[in-house]
Amino acid sequence: LVESVFARDPHVRTPRTSVIVRDMIAEDALAAIDKLARPFVIKPNFSGSSAGLYVTSDASDAAQNALRLC
Fold this sequence. Notes:
mainly alpha; 2 strands; 70 residues; single chain
């Protein structure tokens, strides 16, 4: 959503993102997350607030928590 709203304005910077889905294997989740900048901010896709928000600098920890929140 953020990318679609701000895609037209090159002056608005947004972080790179990755979506981790329930049926993704741990190695694929880790590979996707490891391409992103640290710290990793993990947020469940089912809530509009900061409920369930998790921040870590460890890619393996981020992947585990992302898969747990799916």
